[in-house]
Specification:
The complex is a heterodimer of chains A (about 325) and B (about 575). Chain A has about 325 residues and is α/β, with parallel strands linked by helices. Chain A has helices at about 5-25, 55-65, 80-85, 105-120, 140-150, 210-215, 275-285, 290-305, 320-325; strands spanning about 30, 45-50, 70-75, 90-95, 120-125, 130-135, 155, 160-165, 185-190, 195-200, 205-210, 230-235, 240, 245-250, 265-270, 315. Chain A has one domain. In chain B, helix 1 links the parallel strand 1 (about 1-10) and strand 2 (about 30-35). In chain B, helix 3 (about 70-85) crosses helix 7 (about 190-195) and helix 7 crosses helix 9 (about 220-225). The termini of chain B are far apart. Classes of the chains: A alpha/beta (about 325), B alpha/beta (about 575).
Chain lengths: ~325, ~575
């Protein structure tokens, strides 16, 4: 790793920060309820569009884990998402009509908010269909984890995306508002992930799971990345490079142990594959606002058209975090 | 007589106040040392919260920094105050603000009353200490530490290294035999008095001011000169991880804490409401305490350290991805790889499954698809039989397969016709045992019935690939257990070789094999090889295969095959 490439990463980071700073003008604030928060609150950042039906469970889930405040960017919803969020006492809301893709899939907006409001605090950046599971999450709130990470001198916590899916076709079991999506999407793939080191950034590039198995068997390289670093003690110089998959400065990506041991890690249960998915895929395809020329969504549409069931004989039924840790998808590390 | 409690506090003061109240209400006098760096407003709140308790006093405040003499100084201040103000304190217990009494105070008092002249302080000579982190134990007493470990870590480390290289030694004062131990002790009044009024106290203090982490050695060392009876264990449960940070207890440790023999636990997460509520509740019933089993808690923490330092071998995941030197080339469990045997024996696959008690796959790395056992399109863990997914990252494919099936031995066929990208991993994996009958790839070619000129190029290609693989296995990097026979050697004594294969796979197999797989009829194969030679190819991997072979003997099973010229 030469000095030049190190410097190039620095330039990239500066560029991302500047970009986020410029895009701040696209955001208009609807509600700011940040006053009177406790010292060192745990903050959740998210950008969304038309997710009204998912919101009640999402907010509740993270409230129970101990998130103190939600900072949300609404990207031109027309299904009541904005109105619902504006009523919540622990949500600060911004809205924008600008393009999702042009804002690096919302990351520019979120990075501006992270820098502005997240600095010095533990910040969780997730999508509305991602649910964090970490060691002992049933008995220890998020603050126990962040206190422990603080004492260990860690700045970031990795949680791999774990695609959850139902048995049978996605449209068979409709999702009701407020329902735990994992009552429907109960299954996951436990052991078909591929891992590579992604050199200049030092992170692990993880692919696989049911999406690779069913939709990307012919083009595995294009399968979506599953590695994520959603929980970070934010510093104004930090930047997310591609969604929350990797960060700069690149030292933040070293959330894994290369000397043989295991660092603590969690999972982001991904409730994407519900009956809402087909409509979402159609919409995203029409808007052309997603990754890689929406290759992913095109693959899904073909998959859905063929009525492909993600479930297979070896699908694992989700029980709890201990199961994920035994299966080797996440680890307690030395947190006991 | 009662026990006086000295508390060193610096954070989570609302919890410290709760604990101090608990001690005081049980009749124990309390002296609190509050770090001088605590803000005035917090101090005022803290003092106000305890204002109604006459037996809770505050000692002179010192600014404390971890690892320095300030902590000892703070302890001395508070202990002096304790001895002065509370003549009823027969023992003095040193605790911190994040300690929690986990057994009724009455039990502690009863225990101390039963041992009136015993000092409970862990005190171990430096030679016998196993728990210090960073290799500093004896050197804590003989080097100098002018730099802050927290703020000037680089200077700290470099200066230690420099002193080691120069062979620098501080002289240990006469009469001092360095001992180390847990910071949290419980001393008798006379012993503590003797330490505080030691004629050499000024000299001791001067020396220990320059010792590293003196709070783990000051009292532990001097007590050895003065005490009549030292019981070298701490009454406080306090565990440290491999980096020297104390473990924190949460609500879900309740059942473990109930089984320790210790009276106080450290440290407790300030928001562990359930622990605080339970243990600070007024003692109602003393019964129903489970048998003490401190080993259980030791095991928990030992396992945590092992997971962090060693991890689960053969697991590759988001937070464990070892470098090459630390186990990157290793599957989770032993597995068998067989090359050429399924060409030589028509029913090798089902036969192996029977005799080896293993899951036997076909050619996992076949060009068209992964041939999982039973022909399944998806295997355990959700592994797909798609060749493109597999070839995208063959290592992940194989290590996942072995990890997913831990507890069941895996075997698969391999051959020169398969995708070879996995070969370096197989060769370097100590868990692989590889058996090769070289040259057997020619048997299916011969039996295909195609004409020799047609086959020749293909045979040469396969021979090259197999030769490369064998050369790789004979290289210096190889850690796999390998057995390579030429086809000629193998058919000379197939029974013995099959025995070896089964023994390698399953060394403790209780019974010898009672059946043999069926060998392909090789009469005429020698002629085929000669024909290949005539066409200009040089078949070498088969060994010296005889021109004529008597198959009926081999076919009959256990009989040694007779080879004729």
């Amino acid at each position: 790793m030469g000095l030049i490439s190190v410097y190039r990463l620095r330039l990239q980071r500066k560029r991302l920060l500047l970009r986020a700073f410029r895009r701040r003008r696209q955001l208009s604030q609807i509600a700011n309820r940040m006053v009177g928060l406790r010292a060192q609150p745990i903050l959740l950042f998210s950008a969304m569009r038309n997710e009204r039906v998912r919101l009640p469970f999402f907010l509740d889930y993270y409230r129970k884990l101990g998130v103190d405040h939600f900072l949300i960017v609404d990207n031109g919803s027309d299904d009541g998402t904005r109105e619902y969020l504006a009523e919540q006492k622990d949500v600060s809301l911004w809205t924008t009509g600008a393009g999702y893709k042009q804002s690096r899939f919302g990351m520019d907006w979120l990075m501006h908010l992270l820098r502005r409001h997240g600095t010095g605090n533990w910040c969780l950046t997730v999508d509305v269909d991602e649910f964090l599971v970490y060691p002992f999450c049933e008995t220890r709130p998020l603050r126990a984890l962040t206190d422990w990470l603080d004492s260990a001198g860690s700045r970031a916590f990795a949680a791999m995306l774990l695609d959850m899916y139902p048995k049978g076709a996605m449209h068979e079991q409709p999702y009701r508002e407020g329902q735990n999506p994992f009552e429907i999407a109960q299954y996951f793939d436990s052991g078909n992930y591929t891992i590579k080191r992604n050199w200049p950034y030092l992170n692990l590039w993880i692919q696989g799971g049911p999406r690779a198995r069913v939709f990307f068997a012919d083009a595995p390289k294009k399968a979506p990345a599953m590695n994520k670093i959603p929980l970070v003690k934010w510093d104004p110089g930090y930047a997310y490079v591609s969604s929350t998959h990797m960060m700069l400065p690149r030292g933040l990506n070293l959330t894994y142990e290369s000397g043989g041991g295991e660092k603590p890690s969690g999972c982001l249960l991904h409730a994407k594959f519900l009956d809402t998915f087909a409509a979402k895929a159609e919409e995203e395809l029409r808007r052309g606002q997603h990754y890689a020329e929406s290759h992913e969504y095109r693959a899904y549409r073909e998959g859905i058209a063929r009525e492909r069931d993600l479930w297979c004989n070896w699908s694992e039924k989700y029980i709890n975090w201990r199961q994920l840790e035994i299966l080797g998808l996440m680890s307690k590390g030395n947190w006991a | 007589m009662t026990v006086g409690v000295v508390m060193l506090c610096h954070a989570s003061l609302h919890r410290a106040a709760q604990v101090a109240r608990h001690w005081a209400q049980a009749g124990c006098p309390v002296v609190i040392h509050l770090d001088r760096r605590v803000a005035e407003a917090d101090r005022a709140n803290f003092a106000a919260a305890l204002a109604d308790l006459p037996d809770v006093r505050f000692s002179r405040r010192i600014a404390c920094e971890w690892g320095t003499f300030s902590l000892v100084q703070a302890t001395i201040e508070a202990a002096t105050r304790m001895l002065q103000d509370f003549p009823q304190a027969g023992h003095v217990y040193l605790a911190s603000g994040s300690c929690l009494p986990i057994r009724p105070v009455a039990e502690l008092e009863a225990h101390l009353a039963a041992h009136p002249h015993t000092d409970f302080i862990e005190s171990v000579t430096t030679a016998d200490v196993g728990w210090t982190v960073g290799g500093l134990n004896k050197e804590r007493f003989t080097l100098r530490f002018p730099f802050s470990w927290k703020k000037q870590r680089q200077f700290f480390d470099r200066y230690v290294r420099l002193q080691r290289r120069l062979g620098f030694q501080r002289r240990i004062p006469e009469g001092i035999v360095p001992h180390l131990g847990s910071q949290w002790w419980c001393l008798t009044r006379p012993t503590l008095q003797a330490i505080l009024h030691h004629p050499d106290r000024a000299r001791h203090d001067r020396y220990f001011r320059r010792v590293w982490i003196p709070d783990e050695s000051y009292f532990q060392t001097i007590v050895r000169q003065l005490s009549t009876r030292v019981e070298s264990r701490s009454l406080t449960l306090s565990k440290f991880d491999f980096q020297g940070r104390p473990y924190v207890f949460y609500d879900d440790h309740m059942h473990l804490l109930r089984r320790t023999e210790a009276f106080v636990a450290r440290k407790i997460w300030p928001q562990a409401d359930q622990l605080y509520d339970t243990y600070l509740a007024p003692a109602t019933e003393t019964a129903s305490r489970p048998e003490p089993n401190p080993g259980k808690i030791d095991r928990l923490f030992a396992k945590a350290v092992e997971r962090r330092t060693r991890g689960r071998p053969g697991l590759y995941m988001q937070s464990r991805f070892p470098s090459k030197a630390r186990g990157a080339n290793r599957a989770a469990a032993p597995y068998g790889v067989f090359e050429g045997l399924d060409d030589l024996f028509s029913d090798f696959h089902p036969w192996l499954a029977r005799v080896a008690e293993a899951r036997v796959h076909g050619h996992l790395f076949a060009p068209d698809r992964a041939q999982f056992s039973g022909g399944e399109p998806v295997f355990k863990g959700g592994l797909s039989d798609s060749a493109s997914l597999r070839d995208y990252n063959p290592r992940s494919f194989l290590t996942s397969l072995i990890w997913n099936t831990r507890g069941e031995r895996q075997c698969f066929q391999f051959g020169p016709g398969d995708v070879q990208d996995i070969a370096p991993f197989l060769a370097g994996d100590p868990n692989a045992s590889i058996a090769i009958v070289s040259g057997a790839f020619a048997i299916p070619l011969w039996r295909s019935g195609r004409s020799v000129p047609e086959i020749r190029a293909e045979a040469a290609r396969l021979q090259k690939i197999e030769a490369d693989f064998i050369a790789l296995l004979q290289g210096p990097e190889t850690k796999a257990r390998t057995r390579v026979w030429t086809l000629a050697d193998f058919v000379e004594d197939p029974v013995e070789h099959l025995h070896q294969i089964v023994d390698d796979l399953n060394p403790r197999a209780p019974h010898r094999m009672t059946e043999l797989p069926r060998m392909v009829d090789l009469s005429g194969f020698g002629g085929f090889l000669q024909e290949l030679r005539n066409q200009g190819m040089q078949p070498v991997l088969m060994g010296e295969f005889p021109a004529v072979i008597e198959m009926d003997r081999i076919g009959r099973g256990m009989v040694r095959p007779q080879l004729a010229r």
